[in-house]
């Protein structure tokens, strides 16, 4: 984001940083017991985590995947798009990094991630498979899924723009504008790779994709709990209720309404349409209750 496009004033901590409906605790009964200052601070902390999610996805996954395909024999038009894709992902990471540092310099001065903490073994495995996307084309599906959902989330930010902190709205507006092209390039890569992938490898990748969605991309778990831990660390009166907050987050994993809203035809319609075209991907409805095979026809 160019400097002239970015709000020049300091971050306004009297404002909400993101739409409440995009935060996890909002969907639990216990959220209603919080005071407005407590809810606002939770919202702000969750927004920092939300930025971390984008950075992690772009830094740990997109960089390697795009770098791999830039060395492959693809059309020059697609390669030009992927180079733009890669440059914009780097720009997004820097934008969200700077925003988090602006909001919490003591937390982010020497690191990009606070709420997201990936074990070394898991990080190593992700690095390994992201450098081999033709063996693990599930990563292209995951990129398409997450980037299309980012489009939906960005639109929700803009819907409530007048009530949100301007820096966060500006960042999401920039991110949303670029993600439209990214989703298109993700689809072009899938069209190049997935049909050429053998049936057995497609089935393996589909199962692995389902496991990753279930474990990391559909219900609030480790990082979401750390956000709550940060909240109760700032409000001593909430500390006795910390276990209750954790239980409330865990229950979202079995809440059908919450899980249906995470990935559904209203926020990832193109990905779901593409899933429908491949029998091995229709089984993802088991981990994505909002996906009903054939519903997006």
How would you portray this structure in words?
With 297 residues, the protein is mainly α. The chain has a single domain (3-286), classed as Ribonucleotide Reductase, subunit A, CATH 1.10.620.20. The chain has helices spanning 36-69, 76-103, 105-108, 120-130, 138-159, 166-193, 199-216, 222-234, 242-251, 256-262, 269-276. Helix 1 (36-69) packs across helix 4 (120-130), helix 1 packs antiparallel against helix 8 and helix 8 runs antiparallel to helix 9 (242-251). It is globular.
Key terms:
single chain, 297 residues, mainly alpha, Ribonucleotide Reductase, subunit A, globular, disordered N terminus
In short:
The protein is an all-alpha fold and 297 residues long.
């Amino acid at each position: 984001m160019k400097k002239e496009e970015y709000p020049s004033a300091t971050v306004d901590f009297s404002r909400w940083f993101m739409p409440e409906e995009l935060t996890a605790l909002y969907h639990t009964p216990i959220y209603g017991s919080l005071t407005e200052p407590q809810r606002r601070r939770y919202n702000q902390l969750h927004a920092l985590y939300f930025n971390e999610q984008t950075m992690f996805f772009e830094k740990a996954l997109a960089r390697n995947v795009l770098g791999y395909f830039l060395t492959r024999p693809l059309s020059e038009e697609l390669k030009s798009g992927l180079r733009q894709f890669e440059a914009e992902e780097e720009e997004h990471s820097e934008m969200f990094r700077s925003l988090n540092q602006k909001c919490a310099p003591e937390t982010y001065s020497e690191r990009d991630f606070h709420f997201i903490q990936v074990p070394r073994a898991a990080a190593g495995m992700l690095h390994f498979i992201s450098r081999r996307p033709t063996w693990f084309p599930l990563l292209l599906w995951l990129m398409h899924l997450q980037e299309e959902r980012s489009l939906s989330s960005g639109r929700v930010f803009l819907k409530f723009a007048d009530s949100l902190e301007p820096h966060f709205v500006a960042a999401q507006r920039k991110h949303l504008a670029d993600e439209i092209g990214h989703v298109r390039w993700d689809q072009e890569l899938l069209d190049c790779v997935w049909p050429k992938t053998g049936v057995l490898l497609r089935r393996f990748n589909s199962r692995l994709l389902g496991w990753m969605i279930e474990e990391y991309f559909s219900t609030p778990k480790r990082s979401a709990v750390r956000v709550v831990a940060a909240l109760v660390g700032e409000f001593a009166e909430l500390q006795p209720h910390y276990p209750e907050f954790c239980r409330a987050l865990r229950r979202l994993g079995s809440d059908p309404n919450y899980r249906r809203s995470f990935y559904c035809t209203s926020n990832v319609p193109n990905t779901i349409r593409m899933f429908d075209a491949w029998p091995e991907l229709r089984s993802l409805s088991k981990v994505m209750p909002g996906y009903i095979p054939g519903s997006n026809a």
